[in-house]
Amino acid sequence: MKNIRMIVSYDGTSYNGFQTQPSGNTIQDVLESAIRALSNEDIRIIGSGRTDAGVHARGQVINFQTNSRIPAERWTYAINARMPEDIVVIHSDEVPPEFHSRHSAKRKTYQYTIDTNQYPDVFHRRYRVHHYAPLHVPAMREALNALVGEHDYTSFASPQSTQPSHVRTIYEARLADGDGRLDIFVTGNGFLYNMVRIIAGTAIWVGEGKMKAQDIPSILVQKDRTKAGPTAPPQGLTLLQVEYPE
Amino acid sequence: MKNIRMIVSYDGTSYNGFQTQPSGNTIQDVLESAIRALSNEDIRIIGSGRTDAGVHARGQVINFQTNSRIPAERWTYAINARMPEDIVVIHSDEVPPEFHSRHSAKRKTYQYTIDTNQYPDVFHRRYRVHHYAPLHVPAMREALNALVGEHDYTSFASPQSTQPSHVRTIYEARLADGDGRLDIFVTGNGFLYNMVRIIAGTAIWVGEGKMKAQDIPSILVQKDRTKAGPTAPPQGLTLLQVEYPE
Known about the structure:
Two copies of one chain form a homodimer.
Chain A: E1 2-10, H1 27-39, E2 46-47, E3 56-66, H2 74-80, E4 87-95, E5 107-115, E6 129-130, H3 137-146, E7 149-152, E8 167-177, E9 181-188, H4 195-208, H5 216-222, E10 237-243
Parallel strand pairs in A: 3-10, 5-6
Antiparallel strand pairs in A: 1-3, 1-4, 2-3, 5-9, 5-10, 7-8, 8-9
């Protein structure tokens, strides 16, 4: 039995998110169907975590157990021949039996991208949220900095979250100010349901002056979702990287 | 009567090219339909030139004559409210009556983008052509340089071209070597049918070693389409900019 790991990149626009669900049409469904066809086994894959409908990934990590004789590195080539054009496996390797793409993950990095051009850039409309209006970047940076550390992020999680604990650690939350775009990069040891989208929505509110960066510590302490900003739209979000111990 | 000019950006993936044609579904159709609805006039727009099905634009230029009282600068806002998400007007202004977006154009610049990653970048798949294989960049640059100047480009035009003369001037043809991508930028006083795509296809052949950069002068002299490389796929091509006299 081999434990195969894959790094998967996808444009989530047309899918109901990563994880299998009753309404179908998920990234997991597409991957499992191809892996089953190649291995002739009833394989279930494990993803590093869900991504919502419309959310993208550059470096989603999955793993699965197989008796297939396909060499680990060969899986990439084999599976890509069966992928639609919006899902690409960019790497595959064999990992120790105990590797679990979700439980073993140590750090995840997400990117949230805002198109700040006066009129939307049509070439990135599926991957950026258009927001034309002056955004106060230093205030947004200050708000993001205030979120770094170990905190209970209940105020920044969907009330639908079923996690027993809402304590997580954000190692870094930074804003890159580019040509017609703002990119928020958030790295943490784990994220709650909608957490990065709520962080992005809150940063945008701070940038618009609807909320103050200095209020973030108090918002965290209140553990009340209604105190933070709105949940920013899914299409601006990309799971960039999942890191594991060496 | 005002002469209104607009700069238009579009993702050409879903259209049968810029120019109105019997099968419909063109960029021109969409623009004219919105302009007619706003002006209540039977307006025809003039584009700086055609773009093929699947070809994109960042800076297509159009103009039209109207008696509408909509202020020139206000057109951008008005028309974007009626545009699908893959067409955006990024600028509008009033120009002198004699301005003609095709006849007045002095220089056009096209970009052709090749995705050189081992596996295609899903986020740019609609705007780049995937080509994973070592491409010899210095040879490609030499080939592009050999195309600069005033030449008869019959060897680099579709045999379907109906232009009376195939003499054009290329001012610049350069290759930018980026992170997982190659960009060919070609600036000229005008381009023949499929010309930039044939230049791109030829540059790729030179990069693959299927053709030599030193052969370009002889290919030009022969005025024979079969001597140049293939016509590269449309989705890699973007009309970047059209320039006019001050």
